[in-house]
Automatic annotation (TrEMBL):
InterPro entries, A to Z: CorA_cytoplasmic_dom (IPR045861), CorA_TM1_TM2 (IPR045863), MgTranspt_CorA/ZnTranspt_ZntB (IPR002523)
Keywords annotated in UniProt: Cell membrane, Membrane, Transmembrane, Transmembrane helix, Transport
Molecular function as annotated in GO: cobalt ion binding; cobalt ion transmembrane transporter activity; magnesium ion binding; magnesium ion transmembrane transporter activity
Protein name, as recorded: Magnesium transporter
Broad class of the protein's primary localization: membrane
SUPFAM superfamilies: CorA soluble domain-like, Magnesium transport protein CorA, transmembrane region
Organism of derivation: Saccharopolyspora elongata
Transmembrane segments: 268-286, 298-318
Recorded family membership: Belongs to the CorA metal ion transporter (MIT) (TC 1.A.35) family.
Annotated Gene Ontology cellular component terms: plasma membrane
Location(s), subcellular: Cell membrane
Amino acid sequence: MARTRVYRNGILDAEDFPVADVSDHLADTAATVWLDFCAPTAEDLAAISEELGLHELAVEGAIHTQERAKLECFRAHSLLTAYAVRMNPQTGHLRTSELAAFITDRALVTVRKDEHFDIDAVVHRWDTAPEGLAKSGAGFLLHGLLDYIVDGHFEAAQVLDDQIEALEDLVFNDKPDHDALQRRSLHLRKSLVRMRRAVVPMREVLNTVARPDMRLVDETLAPYFHDVQDHVLRASEWTESLRDLITTVRETQLNLQGHRLNMIMKKVTGWAAIIAVPTAITGFYGQNVPYPGAQQPWGFWVSASATVVLCIAIYALFKKRDWL
């Protein structure tokens, strides 16, 4: 079921009225209309497509999923495609919710691709906006929508940053679980890639919306849109830095694995060298030919002493060079 609202002269006049009444409200030049659809079909949008002069390609793009975040300008309207994101702090799983929005001079039509997009949070921002801001018409509605989406990007970047910091601590554990670390790092990297696809294009979207020829941002809204642009820039830069950070964490993990393997091989080789000494001596004395001290007590004590002394000497040498 579609949700509807109409503002007149910056004041909420009516809501949840039938879609068929939209044309009556738009007949008043002081009215600004908002409509919201969730997972609509082409037939659902046909009711307002002709009324608002929506281009058929724009309607097709609003119905299809997995569109790139962008702002397309048509003759009578613009089509916004954006993604709201939410990061689970416990699992690090990123959930994206796609949204399309038709923007005209006096109307905003939001098309949610699924129910995960929290449209109530957007409505709450409109209701708690500073007094008089709603007089800016469709630009006011668009600001609340973009502000909610961008704030979600910023919060997701914060959660992802915390997840990567926790991963760094796990990397430097004395006995790290390498399989778990690899799964965790690859999972976070996958979430980061998905978030980057949603966040980075929003810089271009905000720059286009703020252009004077779009006539969506008046003097009253300009400071608020500049604030959203600043948040977009910070979230985008944060996302880029997180990509470098998680790459560094992965490389550090591999380097530490290689270092630990080298240490193990060095110690094993050192102990093998020590064990080789008694093996060589006892092997020499075990040959079936006469040798000095053969079948004599002093011969046994000489071989045993040589074994102990040489093993201690080699151990001390390796320890001094930090090979053991």
